[in-house]
Structures are given as C-alpha cells and as structure tokens.
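Q: Given only this backbone (330 positions), what sequence would you predict?
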C-alpha cells in the first residue's frame, strides 16, 4: 500500500505535537470519497490548531487543515467519480474530521463542491475558507439591499485573508470601500491596489451608544470592540456582516443601533453553510476574482514542512493576504 505524507497533531497529557509522518490510506477515516489533495491553505484557525494556541482541534490524532482541493481517486457516491476536481472548506474538517494537510483525504461526498470552471486548484486555495467567507459576507450585504449607491462600505482587519478578498470583491462590484487596519503605514499600497478607496486605522472603544452615521455596510473580521464601533457608526437600515473574532469573541455593544437605526447584524457561518449557498458562492468567486487580485492577495506558497513556522507568523499578524500549501511538492 502506497504511503504519503501528512501532518499529524497528537496529544499526550496536555502537550500537543505537530509532526510530518508517512501514513497510508488504511489510516484514513472511513468516508465515501478518496481525494488526492494537491493544495491546501493556511488560515488563522489553522495557525491556532498547529501551534496549539487555542482548543480548535477536538479529537486526536488529527490531520489539520480546514481547506483542500484535489482530484477524486475513488468514490462510493454517485455524486462524484474518479477524475472529478473538487474543493472543500468548512464542515469542521481539520477540527473534528481529518483535513487538508495530507496528500490524500477521505471525505463525505456532501462536504465537497465541484471546482468551478475558470478556477485552477492553486487559485481555489488562494481563495480558500477566507475568500469563501468574504464572498458569503458580500452576498449577505447584497441580500439586505446594501448596493454601491448607498454609500461607503467598511472592511475591518483589511489586510488579512478575509479582509483582502472582501476588498477585491466589493471593489469589483463597484462599491466605495474603506479599509480599516492597524498596518496602514506598511500595507497602504497593497490595500489600495486591491481596490480600497481610502484607508483608516483601527476602531477605538467608546461608551457612546451611537456615533455619526458613516457606513452603508461593513464586513467585520475582528469582533469585540471593533464590531461594536462599526455598529455605532452604521447608517440607518445599513448592514454589517460579522465573520471573525481576531480581536475577541465578546461584543460590548448596546441595542441602540438596532432599535433606533434599524441596523442589521448578519452572522456569517462559513463552516456549516448549506451546499446550495456554497456552490453559488464558489461560482461567483470564479466570476469576480481577477488574475491581478489573485496575485495581490497571495503572500506565497509553502510546503507542508513550513506550515508550523508560518502558522506562528499568522498568529502574530505578520502575514498579509493568503498562504497556499502545496501538497504536491512536499
């Protein structure tokens, strides 16, 4: 039986180690579809998992990696056949189910989405969970009637993966985009090239329940005080898509934006999102993302052996945009 490389997280007492090991298909979970994985990606959640900085992983041993793309080798489901190109994000893969940091994966057919025409496997992971979440956020704003003519849309955590793709998508759709980041001095040119019309610093905490109406909508990747500040400044009937907690999981806000301005707080669940929404989001990503945007948002491509070091960097805020993990050159 042919062996292949995988990163395994193993726990002994309270210590968790991340090791590159040779395993076989016999070691994989019992699922309907065997996929030869060509690429994965490095997300903030992956950084937490591989460094054991937060209890992201709930079962051990675990192959981390919440994203993957590859080609079906074997299928016991009539939904897919050998040779089909597929992409996976979410479904607690890499947390409760073995994920993308291995050269092969066995997965449920219902977790997979056909790789859309016009996207290469590399590009799919340049998007990954971050880009998929960004697309879901933009679609949620659209569904709530936040159109380009309504005013400025703010994106927080703008230099991260979700923020970067959100800016590119919103700009492509004709929105006036304001990028909020604490790294504007060093990354201003990058955010402008993505499509940001102007750049502001991080939001500050305030005891005021409402502030001047500034935003027709927003995509917030930070949470906590930042999300509360965006809500205080969102215009009447505006909407904010909440999709991250890089700044914390609490929300020190009041009900005033909701009951006095009719502001909509839109929760974005990119993990357990229904398949029809997934398929539509991936199709739109294939339509909207330009080659220039892919080049801009990609920090680089790494091997499996480099994941741990890069995971430490992403947690320190030292990574902009997206990082692709190439499983074929590992």
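A: Predicted residues:
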């Amino acid at each position: 039986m042919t062996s292949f490389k995988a990163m395994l997280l193993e726990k002994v007492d309270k210590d968790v180690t991340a090791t590159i090991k040779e395993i076989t298909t016999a070691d994989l979970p019992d699922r309907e579809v065997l996929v030869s994985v060509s690429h994965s990606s490095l997300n903030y959640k992956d950084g937490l998992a591989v460094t054991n900085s937060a209890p992201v992983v709930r079962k051990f041993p675990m192959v981390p990696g919440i994203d993957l793309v590859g080609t079906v080798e074997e299928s016991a489901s009539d939904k897919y056949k050998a040779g089909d190109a597929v992409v996976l994000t979410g479904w607690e893969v890499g947390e409760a189910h073995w994920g993308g940091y291995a050269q092969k994966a066995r997965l449920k057919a219902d977790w997979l989405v056909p790789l859309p025409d016009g996207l290469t496997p590399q590009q799919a992971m340049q998007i990954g969970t971050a880009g998929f979440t960004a697309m879901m956020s933009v679609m949620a704003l659209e569904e709530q009637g936040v159109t380009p003519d309504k005013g400025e849309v703010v994106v927080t955590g703008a230099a991260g993966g979700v923020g970067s793709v959100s800016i590119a998508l919103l700009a492509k759709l004709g929105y006036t985009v304001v990028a909020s980041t604490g790294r504007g001095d060093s990354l201003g040119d990058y955010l402008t090239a993505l499509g940001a019309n102007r750049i502001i610093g991080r939001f500050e905490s305030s005891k005021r329940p409402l502030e001047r109406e500034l935003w027709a909508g927003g995509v917030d990747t930070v949470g906590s005080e930042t999300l509360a500040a965006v809500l205080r400044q969102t215009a009447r009937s505006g909407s904010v898509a909440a999709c991250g907690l890089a700044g914390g999981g609490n929300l020190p806000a009041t009900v005033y934006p909701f009951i006095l301005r009719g502001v909509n707080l839109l929760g974005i669940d990119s993990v357990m999102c229904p398949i029809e929404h997934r398929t539509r989001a991936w199709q739109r990503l294939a339509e909207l993302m330009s080659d220039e945007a892919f080049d801009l948002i990609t920090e680089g491509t790494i091997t499996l052996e480099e994941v741990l070091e890069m995971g430490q960097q992403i947690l320190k805020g030292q990574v902009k945009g997206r990082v692709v993990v190439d499983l074929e050159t590992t």
